[in-house]
Amino acid sequence: MDMNRLTELFSLDRIGSAGAKFDIDKLTWFNETYIRHSEPKALLPQAKKALKAAGIDLPGDEFLTGMIRLMRERVKFARDFATEAPYFFAPPAAYDEKMVKKWTAESAVLLQALAEKFDSLADWTDENLHHAFQELLTQKETGAGKVMAPLRLALTGTSSGPGVFEIAALLGKTETLKRIHTAVETIEV
User: Fold this and answer.
1) Which secondary-structure segment (H or E) carries 182?
2) pLDDT digit string (tens) for 21-41?
3) Which residues touch 105 (CB under 8 Å, ≥6 apart)?
4) Of 188, 186, 189, 8, whose CA–CA distance to 91 is shortest?
5) Angle at the Cα of 118 (from 113 to 120), degrees rounded to 5?
6) Which pLDDT score is estimated for 165?
7) Which of 18, 22, 50, 67 meets the CB 3.0–4.6 Å disulfide criterion with 79?
8) Do 35 and 76 form a contact (C-beta atoms < 8 A)?
């Protein structure tokens, strides 16, 4: 609610005589709801402040707005933009151990083939990335999980987050391909 609506609803008659209780869970819920319902551009100043405080070099507003759009359903506070998705600002420094245990020689081969498909794309959009992914699955006669999980691991170092094609589209072609190649070269079976 904005201040005008709060003022409309306020009434001294509704104030109880019992001691006030500060409910941090309710406050967190309010903040989370505010973030989810705000336009990404409106959250830009808070996100920039949080990223600066975390020592992250700020990319351009267009990139940050895209990151906020992808992350606003996953954060509770503006500071979470820095802590919950560091992979938007730097390649993974390490990979999730649980996911690495699932990495196979086939993972590397499939990711390399996917990188070649991605590299041939003239128009770098999440829709085109998804289409190239589907083509690879058909050509290799394999399931999505055998490629999707390794791709997410290569791009983010984690097993969760926003849509992997949206992440790749925001990171851009050069960075996405670089991260895939790094994962293929460094993750051992």
Assistant:
1) helix 173-186
2) 788 999 999 999 999 999 999
3) 189
4) 186
5) 100
6) 97
7) 50
8) yes
CA dihedral 32, 33, 37, 42 (to 10 degrees): -40
Q: How far apart are CA 110 and CA 173, in angstroms?
A: 18
Q: The tokens 């509704």 sit on which residue?
A: 14
Cβ atoms 170, 85 nearer than 8 A: no
Q: In this structure, which amino acid lies at residue 56? A: I
Whether 64 and 47 have beta carbons less than 8 Å apart is answered as yes
How crowded is residue 176: how many other Cβ atoms within 10 Å of its Cβ? 24
pLDDT by residue (tens digit) across 143-188?
A: 999 999 999 999 999 999 999 999 999 999 999 999 999 999 999 8
Q: Is the pTM of this model over 0.90?
A: no
**What's 23's DSSP letter?**
-
In this structure, what token pair is assigned to residue 138? 């058909």
Separation of alpha carbons 187 and 82, rounded Å: 25
Rounded (5°) CA angle 64-67-72: 115
- Comparing C-alpha atoms, which of 176, 92, 102, 98 is closest to residue 145? 102
Q: Which residues contact 84 (CB under 8 A, 6 or more apart)?
A: 71, 74, 75
User: What are the backbone dihedrals phi and psi of residue 3, each rounded to the nearest 5 degrees, phi first?
Assistant: -60, -40
What is the structure's pLDDT at 6? 83
